[in-house]
Q: What sequence folds into this?
């Protein structure tokens, strides 16, 4: 396929920053094709179209990581090798988020409300329980309750990543793309608020205000959002490695024990990062923003 041939797994691993532009490209194509062909369901169709474009790359990358598990002699070196794949997951996520946030801001409201309808609903559903939790309690109690709620919600997503990757090989890319679209809408909403706020400003001051608004909006969600995505990606990688090991019949030899050990290390690391991200979202982000 034309889109799939733009970048290969080996090239992506050596030059992960290129995945930023690849993420922009495939999410933009998915957005416009989804709205053009399936207008009423564009909010979900664009996700599937983006996932279709990213799946071959991710599937081959996961297969490569499983081979490294079999051939590697040290766990330390193996984790360093896995970090290369995590890097291009991160750049892909940032690219898709940036692209979708820009389109959310630039497109007319009547169009963006259709394309991002389900994402906006999801944000409202996430915020509602947190708002209820913060009512009528001390700040310390509120922070603890919010921390537990955020971590439990994120833990469910992490489990979905493992299951999706185990069943579909590169299934975590669906979770990654969906989260990118939700974060993009949240960022876009902040940018729109800032644009309205500084609409009357003119000249250099207006440009500076807009730049500050954009920087603030991305930072507000990337501070805790990126660690969350890294945790999901690591968990998805673990599920994908097990899936590839089963497909390649590596469960029937002594190498499977090494694979299980590596998967256990990846899952432990993902849980630790996920909990750290929940702490950042509960305590650090509110104090900074």
A:
């Amino acid at each position: 396929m034309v889109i799939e041939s733009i970048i290969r797994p080996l090239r992506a691993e050596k030059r992960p920053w290129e995945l930023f532009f690849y993420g922009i490209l495939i999410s933009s194509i998915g957005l416009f094709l989804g709205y053009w062909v399936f207008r009423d369901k564009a909010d979900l169709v664009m996700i599937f179209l983006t996932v279709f474009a990213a799946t071959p790359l991710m599937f081959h990358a996961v297969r490569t990581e499983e081979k490294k598990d079999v051939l590697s002699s040290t766990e330390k070196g193996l984790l360093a090798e896995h970090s290369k794949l995590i890097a291009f997951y991160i750049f892909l996520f940032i690219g898709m988020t940036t692209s979708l946030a820009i389109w959310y801001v630039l497109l007319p409201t009547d169009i963006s409300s259709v394309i991002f309808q389900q994402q906006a609903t999801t944000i409202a559903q996430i915020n509602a329980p947190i708002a209820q939790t913060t009512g009528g309690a001390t700040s310390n109690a509120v922070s603890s309750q919010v921390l537990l709620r955020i971590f439990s919600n994120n833990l469910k997503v992490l489990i979905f990543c493992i299951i999706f990757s185990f069943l579909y090989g590169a299934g975590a890319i669906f979770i990654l793309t969906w989260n990118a679209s939700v974060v993009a809408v949240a960022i876009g909403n902040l940018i729109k608020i800032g644009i309205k706020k500084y609409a009357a400003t003119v000249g250099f001051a207006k440009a500076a205000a807009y730049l500050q608004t954009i920087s603030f909006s991305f930072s507000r969600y990337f501070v805790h959002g990126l660690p969350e995505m890294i945790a999901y990606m690591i968990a998805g990688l673990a599920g994908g490695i097990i899936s590839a090991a089963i497909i390649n019949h590596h469960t029937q030899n002594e190498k499977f024990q090494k694979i299980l050990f590596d998967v256990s290390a990846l899952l432990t690391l993902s849980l630790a990062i996920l909990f750290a991200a929940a702490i950042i979202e509960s305590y650090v982000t509110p104090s900074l923003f």
